[in-house]
Amino acid sequence: MTEKALRLGTRRSKLAMAQSGRVAEAVSQVTGRPVELVEITTYGDVSREHLAQIGGTGVFVTALRDALLRGDVDFAVHSLKDLPTTQPEDLALAAVPLREDPRDVIVARDALKFTDLPRGARIGTGSPRRMAQLNAYARGHGLDIETVPIRGNVDTRIGYVRKGDLDAVVLAAAGLHRIGRIDEVTDFLSVDTVLPAPGQGALAIECAADNADLVAMLGELDDPFTRVAVTAERSLLAALEAGCSAPVGALADLLADGQTVKEMRLRGVVGTTDGSRTVQLSTTGPVPDTHDRAVALGRELAAEMLAQGAAGLMGERAH
Questions:
Q1: Taking burial as the number of CB atoms within 10 A of a residue's CB, which of 17, 22, 56, 102 is the most buried?
Q2: Whole-model pTM?
Q3: Mean pLDDT by 10 residues, the chain (319 residues)
Q4: CA-CA distances (angstroms) from residue 124 to 90, 250, 279, 283, 313?
């Protein structure tokens, strides 16, 4: 008798289906059980408002979590950057698999690089974080750009460039990798130019906290380095009391000496969306060997950023 299929809750978007499909295969391998995808529509998928207006935090997550708590699905896959920073007690973040490329990328007309865009170039993004950093970079390097708020899936966004409505759009490298469209990228933005969203490029696999067997099985997909990095990044975000639609960028990367990982560097930035003011700081220390140490690293950097005026740059602080 074949074992009952595990039900994986996923958003319906092409990207969500692609990343959930990959996770389903991996879970099938470690559990020896078939996995079926259960498509769930979230508020973020049906609302046409800008993410910053509908609250950003949790709009893609709540419906999936409700399905988990009702027992309609056994586990769910989220883009980690969409998860609110407070973890519900009845749900376990069972695995954070190895992270994809965390960088942001440009898809521009005529295969242009960001720094080669013409004066007055119109760049589309729905993210205040991207706007703040692109505008700050432009101000510092004598570029003349206009950031234009947009929404929609990858096809819609790239379509604005193809139709000539925009000169370029900014997207996440990880998403384009996962749907097989990375060859459309015209420029990879260095993390020195634009720090990604906390947790960008990483996935979160969540299930009911009281299902110890499933938590343990899914835990085999966990990548410990990715987990401590995103824990530090999200701790920074939480300590700034900012939601995932706030103009906060953060990246924890591992500094290696040859094959040996020596230290972790955490960088954070917050800025006004016009790029006129930013607070950007970094800290380097031993790689955190516990969840609490990763959290502490994020909190320490956030405290330094707040001391330098970060709170005043975020507009409405999310509570």
A1: 102
A2: 0.88
A3: 83 89 95 93 56 53 90 94 88 96 96 94 93 93 92 91 96 94 96 94 95 95 95 93 76 85 91 90 93 95 90 58
A4: 38, 21, 23, 31, 21
